[in-house]
Design a protein that fits this description.
CATH topology of the largest domain: hpI Integrase, Chain A
Radius of gyration: 29 Å
Number of domains: 3
Helix content: 40-55%
CATH architecture of the largest domain: Orthogonal Bundle
Structural class: mainly alpha
Largest sheet: 3 strands, antiparallel
CATH class of the largest domain: Mainly Alpha
Order of helices and strands: EEEHHHHHHHHEEEEEHHHHHH
Number of strands: 8
CATH superfamily of the largest domain: Intergrase catalytic core
Length: 393
């Protein structure tokens, strides 16, 4: 196979690669492609094409831009294979940032350096309002979206390789995780007793469930006799409209064991709730939401979060997010010696690696405790009895 590169204008190069012969006409077949950048970039692209031809993996380029592919990918793949929240998040980032910056580039001509340049620019001046750059975490999220979209293009036979794999996205700084310490919990729960959300806050703290999962919980999902509950749906609010959706992943669909105190509290709460609804002329049903208004309508996530912040302030505790009750639950379990695998299952993480990465700040203490426990198990009899012999002997 032969190929050549010639300059068309400053920063523009034309690649010509022989792709074989037409079996009908016997004419020579060639592929032409324009590349922006340096000659080295054009030569690299030419070698990629020649290599794919030699390996039998040549894909005839399609006339589609990155922006067109991102739109097709979201409408055809993401909306049917990802959760509603993920699909809407991807669509928002693609529309607001990726298409304006990279959408006009022909998909087959996308180069790693173009992505690297975008990441650099986004960090300094990527905000839509023009008031500075995006955070490293947001740019890393853009990299993830691009990588998934390009990987799907490779799978569909539209691209030979995923150029995002050759790019290093920025690494966000590790932030200290905000949680309640054990000494703060009685103070927090005491302040929460004066609100109608006391049982909700208690359940969040004792199960590590997400707010949407709590607000989507029904009594038919709770087994008080077996002291457990099942997460099978979550409430999601968008544009003032609340709807029930499936959990964000198959691992989020899980069973959580309840502590004796929580099981007792929920039993009392259920009896009281049923009594109030009967007085209102509404017959209780297993499909009723556990946490809702008296008329059965779902609670507003924003109102719950706002009330949570007011409770913290009244208790004299530092401000944390409602989601940080989930982090508090996991952190206390790990510090208490519960195996990370069990914690991972309670939280609904896809694998234990996510749990260990998220709560790495807890691991140093666990390592020290493990070392001490091993010393206690083996004993200290051999301390001070090391041989004076040459270790090489």
């Amino acid at each position: 196979m032969k190929g050549s590169v010639r300059q068309r204008s400053k920063g523009s190069w034309e690649i010509c690669v022989d792709t074989g012969w037409d079996p009908v006409t016997g004419k020579r077949l060639r592929h032409f492609e324009n590349v922006k950048g340096t000659k080295k970039v054009a030569q690299q692209r030419m070698h990629e094409l020649l290599h794919s031809l030699e390996q039998g993996a040549y894909v005839k380029p399609v006339r589609v831009t990155l922006g067109e592919w991102l739109r097709d990918w979201i409408s055809g793949y993401v909306t049917t294979n990802c959760s509603l929240r993920t699909a809407q998040s991807y669509q928002s980032e693609v529309k607001r940032h990726l298409i304006p910056a990279l959408g006009a580039i022909p998909l087959p001509q996308l180069q790693p350096q173009q992505l690297q340049n975008y990441y650099s620019q986004a960090l300094t001046e990527g905000r839509v309002d023009g008031k500075g750059g995006l955070s490293a975490r947001t740019v890393q999220y853009h990299h993830r979206i691009l990588s998934e979209a390009l990987s799907h293009a490779v799978k569909m036979g539209i691209l030979v390789r995923n150029v995002a794999e050759a790019v290093d996205p920025p690494r966000p700084e590790q932030k200290n995780m905000a949680t309640l310490v054990p000494e703060d919990i009685p103070q927090f729960l005491e302040a929460a007793r004066e609100t109608s959300y006391y049982v909700l806050f208690y359940t969040a703290l004792y199960t590590g469930m997400r707010l949407g999962e709590l607000l989507g919980l029904r009594w038919c999902d709770v087994d008080l006799d077996m002291a457990s509950l099942s997460v099978v749906q979550a409430l999601y609010k968008r544009s003032r409209v609340c709807k029930m959706i499936k959990p964000k992943s198959s691992h989020s669909r899980r069973r959580i064991a309840l502590s004796p105190s929580l099981a007792l509290l929920l039993r009392e709460y259920k009896a009281e709730q049923q009594t109030q609804r009967i007085l209102l002329g509404k017959l209780p049903a297993d499909s009723d939401l556990v946490f809702s208004h008296l008329d059965g309508k779902p609670l507003d996530p924003g109102v719950v979060s706002h009330t949570f912040a007011k409770v913290l302030k009244k208790a004299g505790l530092p401000h944390i997010r409602f989601h940080d009750l989930r982090h508090t639950h996991a952190t206390l379990l790990l510090k208490g010696g519960v195996h990370p695998k069990i914690v991972s299952e309670r939280l609904g993480h896809a694998n234990i690696g996510i749990t260990l990465d998220t709560y790495s700040h807890v691991l140093p203490g666990l390592q020290e405790r493990a070392a001490e426990q091993f010393d206690n198990l083996v004993g200290r009899k051999n301390v001070g009895k090391m041989s004076a012999k040459d270790p090489e002997m």
